[in-house]
Amino acid sequence: MPVVLTEQQVDHLFNETKAFPGYQLTIDLERQEVIAPDNRSYSFEVTPFRKYCLVNGLDDIGLTLRHADKIKAFEAERLLRMPWLATQLP
Questions:
Q1: What is the separation of C-alpha 36 from the centre of its chain, rounded to a whole number of angstroms?
Q2: Fewer CB atoms inside 10 A, N or C side of the chain?
């Protein structure tokens, strides 16, 4: 996920990266912060829905599969009303 920071913040982080080999950042998605080794933090925005999906490891398929029981019930009821839909084509 792209994180948007100010130009000044990005410059500072690039300078730190160049100055300190092995420099690592921590991304705290829950708090929406980028945290540097010196504990300096930079806030970023993310929409609530995007954050929910990322925190819960959900992609489009995962979001759909949360409703698997409802989908199965719908399909079963639909086949009762329209049994010809279950016919296999050669």
A1: 22
A2: C
